Amino acid sequence: MRKKMIILLILLICLIPVPLRLKDGGTVVYKAILYQVEDIHRILSENEYMDGLIIRVLGFEVYNNLHK
Q1: pLDDT of residue 27
Q2: Cβ atoms of 56 and 40 closer than 8 Å
Q3: Which of 20, 21, 24, 31 has the fewest Cβ atoms within 10 Å of its own Cβ atom?
């Protein structure tokens, strides 16, 4: 029983994200040990910006809908 609780606790720690706010126009990166989610809103010029979402699992990009 104690071993199962320790494994469950380790899994929970690996899945809890830490939000990081970047100073590029509003991008927020949610980082956990096993995955990363980037909600991108980046200013490119006065009238242009990049917007989208990138999801990475174990360092491999699994979803990307980034567009200008």
Answers
A1: 94
A2: no
A3: 21
- CA geometry: angle at 66 spanning 34 and 12, to 5°? 15
Amino acid identity of residue 49, one-letter, is Y
- What letter does residue 32 receive in the DSSP assignment? -
Q: How far apart are CA 33 and CA 4, in angstroms?
A: 20
Tokens of 47: 């009238």
Asked if 66 contacts 40 with a C-beta cutoff of 8 angstroms, the reply is: yes
- 3-class SS at 52? strand
Sequential pLDDT tens for the chain (68 residues): 888 899 999 988 889 999 999 988 889 999 999 999 999 998 888 888 899 999 999 999 999 999 88
Residue ranges of E strands in the chain? 18-21, 28-31, 35-43, 49-57, 60-64
